[in-house]
Amino acid sequence: MARWIEGTARSGKTSHLVSQFQDWTADFARARDPQVASQGVLVLAMDGTQRRLLVDRLSRATAGKFPVTAATPLSFIRQQVRLYWILIVRSCNLKAQFPIPLRVEHEQSLALGELAIAPHLETEGARSRAKAVRRLLDLFLLASLQGQDLEGLAGVLERGLGVPNAHLSADALGAWRDFCLHRGLLTYGLEVHLFAHVLLPSPLFREQMVHQYRYLLADDVDEFPAVLADFCQMLLESGAPSLLTFNPQGGARRGLGADPAAWSRLASQCILTSCTAVGLGAQWGGTVVGYATDAAYDCPQVPHFYRLEAASRSRLLRWVASEIAALLASGMLPEEIAIIAPGLDAIASYALPQMLAARGTAVRLLSDPRPLVGSPHVRALLALLRLKYGDETTALDPDEVTEMLAVLLPELDLVRAGMLATVCFVPHRPQLLPYDVHPQWYRLSHRGTVAYEHLRQWLSRQARPMSPLLFLDRAIQQFLRPQKLPYPDVAQLQTLLETAQSHWQLGYRLGWPEAEILERFTDLIQQGTVAANPLLGDRPYTAAVTLASIFQYRSHRLSHRCHFWLDIGSNLWQQGGTAVLYGAPVLQRSWNGHPWDIAQEKLWEEQRLRSLLDDLLHRAGERVYFCYGELDVQGRPQEGALRCLLDLAQRVPSTTSP
Description:
The chain is α/β, with parallel strands linked by helices. Helix content is 49%, strand content 12%. The protein contains 25 helices and 19 strands. The strands form five sheets. Strands 11-16-10-17-18-9-19 form a seven-stranded parallel beta sheet, sandwiched between helices. It has a six-stranded parallel beta sheet with strand order 3-2-6-7-1-8, sandwiched between helices. A two-stranded parallel ribbon has the order 4-5. Strand 6, helix 12 and strand 7 form a beta-alpha-beta unit. Helix 1 crosses helix 3, helix 14 packs antiparallel against helix 25 and helix 17 crosses helix 21. The termini are far apart.
């Protein structure tokens, strides 16, 4: 029996899923080994955070007696590619070698530097070439997620987007695919491609999957790619008891490869259950969506909606912080408030936490995509690495050494560190001289000179043949761990070590000399392509206001008693921004095959805006504040499609204005 649970956010879909699993435990209890039987349940969730939360709910509901097999769409695909790698090697006639996952930043640099992925782009500038290569790699991923081969992708690009010489792009991607396969390098796009075109058609693989997974639970399938719908179709046809939940107003990842339409076709094979909507969307969702998208729609002011208007954005941000302080003073809790923006710029990401911190309120930032090189600890470790392994060609200046000394040695302030770097650092062959060569060494302080000499002696004790990975780890343990850094700084160091490990593994596989690996690694970090803290939303917060972009908020499946919708007049509300990859609309199975024109683009944006508004309103419990500034960050007027929502809202009394 297969069930299809449909409903909006917070309508109880996941509760149905947990209840269904509890019913199945009666079957597991009769098995010879109940825990082995329960591991035949495949649980799919949209991302790692939701997977952990769902597994915790299932475990609590059954007192931890029945473990399950849980995965996200991409982690499940990656796991199957690894497990059946021998099958792939034989099918594709490849050299038998252990596969290496290729991180996104490595994929970009390798495709741009090691392979002429797009020969027809050689005449373009470096920036245009990098952008074009990124687009090609994204198109490969999107096509793979739809089960599309490269020949089909060329046709889609030509018919849908009018790309000239689309076959050249397909040929370049084919060369990139073969380059990676013959070296055992796996990108997300290549893994999905192998899953769709090698594993799924294999009778052996299909037989093993039907035998291994006897039950299926999939939560929020509107966020899943189409290729996984083909896999679940196979389980449904085998008669596996299944339950799938679907949010018709979801699909936040639709521009990143999710295909709700491909999944909705499975509903006809299931018993349908609809859940009752909750939140402000249940009562006012249709009104707000209709007023925002239909110029002829007439509606008076509605309760529960308020507006904050200011001439400048700085004044608007201060007003938002002031209004949040007033709500907290009235008894609302910080964890019941969320600030949601169509795109979080650096000013809002910095100013709002500072303003609220001044009032004693913490802020939970869901994601911080700032580059890893922005961390002074990371920069200090890179300078130390070049100091140890550098030669005459190494570029290291006194300013970098000054920062390194000040960060690694708390006993040295920035001024004394600068004095040491100016005299005691030899730049033409990076090395540190004893402190007493400085003519005014007595001004360096006793504690500072002791710490400096300790660093020099520690460097001399590290054997030169030592792996840079081991050197980085020892440096962290020696100089940074005793400082008891806060969580964000520790997370950045962990990201640095993980990136370094992946980079050296890739370098050894491709046969790069050690010096080249080190140089490429420092260049990679300094280019800013590695994010510092991409998953801050997983941190536990007990009392904090949430600050997030629309995509982050919806992806984390959050809900709050009170919403502040920032920059309601911005055009980014109807545009996808970075949440929509190039070519995503035509790489959906629901695409009609016609050329993608302005009319279809407007229809796509309107459908996205409708889903976005309805979904957010169902995640708001009691009130929503529309926050409008006449000018955006760059000083341009804000005349977006949602500015009209100000007419529906009540003006906040001016007594709360700063």
